[in-house]
């Protein structure tokens, strides 16, 4: 019986050492998996950041081009706008002069009538 107990104890000791070695190996493997996942995550974050910066730069370039186009249009139009406004103003002035000369005789007659009429 004593021999059986020693055999059992010896097997348990060996299997316990094997179990510890197995656990240590599993722990190292898990650490490698975690490190690989961490590295992959960092690489993906770096890639996402680069993509975002690229998109941002493209958008900024597009908006700058749109802004420059609008500036060019408005500055080109400012000369045309000034010319158009001058033409409209001159047309209105001419219209007012024409109307004034057309009705000036009637206005003078009305003023003379009111000035010379005596009311009681």
UniProtKB/TrEMBL annotation:
Name of the molecule in the record: V-type proton ATPase subunit G
Subunit structure: V-ATPase is a heteromultimeric enzyme composed of a peripheral catalytic V1 complex (components A to H) attached to an integral membrane V0 proton pore complex (components: a, c, c', c'' and d).
Superkingdom assignment: Eukaryota
Classification of source organism: Eukaryota, Viridiplantae, Streptophyta, Embryophyta, Tracheophyta
Gene3D superfamilies noted in UniProt: 1.20.5.2950
GO cellular component, one term: vacuolar proton-transporting V-type ATPase, V1 domain
Record organism: Olea europaea subsp. europaea
Keywords carried by this UniProt record: Coiled coil, Hydrogen ion transport, Ion transport, Transport
Signal peptide: none
Coiled-coil region list: 35-69
InterPro entries xref list: V-ATPase_G (IPR005124)
């Amino acid at each position: 019986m004593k021999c059986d107990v020693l055999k059992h104890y010896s097997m348990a000791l060996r299997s316990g050492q094997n179990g510890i070695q197995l656990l240590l190996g599993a722990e190292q493997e898990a650490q490698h998996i975690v490190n690989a996942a961490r590295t992959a995550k960092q690489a993906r974050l770096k890639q996402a950041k680069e993509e975002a910066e690229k998109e941002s730069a493209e958008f900024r370039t597009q908006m700058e081009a749109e802004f420059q186009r609008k500036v060019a249009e408005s500055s080109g139009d400012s000369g045309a706008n000034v010319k158009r406004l001058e033409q409209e103003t001159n047309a209105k002035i001419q219209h007012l002069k024409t109307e004034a000369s057309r009705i000036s005789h009637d206005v003078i007659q009305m003023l003379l009538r009111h000035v010379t009429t005596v009311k009681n």
